[in-house]
Design goal:
The protein has helices at 2-32, 47-50, 60-66, 70-73, 92-96, 103-110, 120-125, 134-146, 154-163, 201-211; strands spanning 55-59, 78-82, 87-91, 150-153, 175-181, 184-190, 198-199, 217-224, 230-237, 243-247. It contains 10 helices and 10 strands.
C-alpha cells in the first residue's frame, strides 16, 4: 500500500513539473512573440524601452541592394536585424562614438534609407522643450511674455528653400540655417553641425506630420537655454494660431541634431 501511494505521488509530481515547464515555455514564447532576430547581446525584454532612445529604422532591402556589404560594414551599429519586417535598427550613439566614420558623413550617405516616418515622434521629442526641463521652459516662456518673435510661415519657408535649392523631403545633406536681423527671419543653407540656428528638414517635417499641419507659423526668438549664451529657439503655432510647442536647436545632446 505504501509503495502504491509513493508511485501515485511520484506520478503527480512529474505531471506537475511538466505542467509547470509547459507553462514557463508558453509564457516565454508569449513574452518574446514578435521579437524576431534580436541580437543575443541585447536584452530581449528591453526592446520597447531600448529602441526609442537613439535607434533609427533603415530599409533593409534597399540598402543591401545598393550596398552589398552594408550589413558587415555597419555591424557594430546594428542593434536589431528584423529581417521579417525589412528593417535594420541602427543606434546612432554607436555611430557618434565611432572612430571609423563621422556621424554627419554617415547620415548624409545613408539618409535615403532611413524610414523617417517611423521616427518622426523621436525626432520631434528630442527637440521639444517641455515643462519638465524647468530652466529651459522658464527661459522660453519668459521670452514669450517679454520678447518679440520674428515669424515665418511654412509656405514662406518653402519659398526660401526653393531659392536655395534645398529639398523639402527628409535628408541630412544640408540643414536650414536661421539668423535673425531687423524684423525678419533670414534663411540660408547650413551644414550638419551642432551650431546655433541650424535645424534639419526632418525636424520641420516631423512637427508638421505629427500634428497634421498645413501652413503653421514658426516664431523665432532667443533665450538662454541649458546655461549657454542666448540661442535661437522657435515656437510653432498651428494653422488656426493655436500653440503647438517650443523647440530648441541641436546642441544638447548632440543627437538632437536629428
Amino acid at each position: 500500500m505504501k509503495k502504491l501511494i509513493l508511485c501515485i505521488a511520484l506520478v503527480a509530481a512529474m505531471v506537475g513539473c511538466n505542467e509547470k515547464k509547459e507553462k514557463e515555455e508558453t509564457t516565454t514564447t508569449a513574452t518574446q512573440e514578435g521579437i524576431e532576430d534580436y541580437p543575443d547581446n541585447v536584452d530581449k525584454y528591453l526592446l520597447h524601452s531600448y529602441l526609442p532612445q537613439t535607434v533609427i529604422p533603415i530599409d533593409r532591402g534597399r540598402v543591401i541592394a545598393d550596398f552589398s556589404t552594408w550589413q558587415d560594414d555597419n555591424k557594430s551599429f546594428i542593434v536589431l536585424d528584423a529581417a521579417s519586417k525589412n528593417r535594420f535598427y541602427v543606434d546612432l550613439d554607436q555611430v557618434l562614438i565611432s572612430t571609423s566614420v563621422k556621424l554627419a558623413d554617415w547620415l548624409s550617405k545613408y539618409d535615403d534609407y532611413i524610414v523617417f516616418s517611423e521616427c518622426y515622434s523621436l525626432i520631434e521629442v528630442r527637440h521639444k522643450i517641455l515643462q519638465q526641463s524647468k530652466d529651459d521652459f522658464k527661459a522660453v516662456t519668459h521670452f514669450d511674455n517679454t520678447g518679440t518673435y520674428k515669424n515665418i510661415t511654412y509656405d514662406q519657408l518653402k519659398v526660401e528653400l526653393k531659392k536655395l535649392s534645398i529639398k523639402e523631403t527628409d535628408h541630412y545633406d544640408s540643414t536650414i540655417k536661421i539668423s535673425l536681423g531687423g524684423s525678419g527671419v533670414y534663411v540660408a543653407e547650413g551644414k550638419y553641425e551642432f551650431l546655433d540656428g541650424n535645424f534639419s528638414i526632418p525636424l520641420i517635417n516631423a512637427i508638421i506630420a505629427n500634428h497634421g499641419l498645413t501652413n503653421p507659423k514658426f516664431c523665432f526668438g532667443k533665450a538662454r537655454i541649458d546655461e549657454t549664451d542666448d540661442v535661437i529657439f522657435f515656437k510653432v503655432l498651428d494653422d488656426s494660431g493655436q500653440f503647438v510647442g517650443y523647440y530648441d536647436f541641436s546642441h544638447r545632446p548632440p543627437l538632437k541634431m536629428l
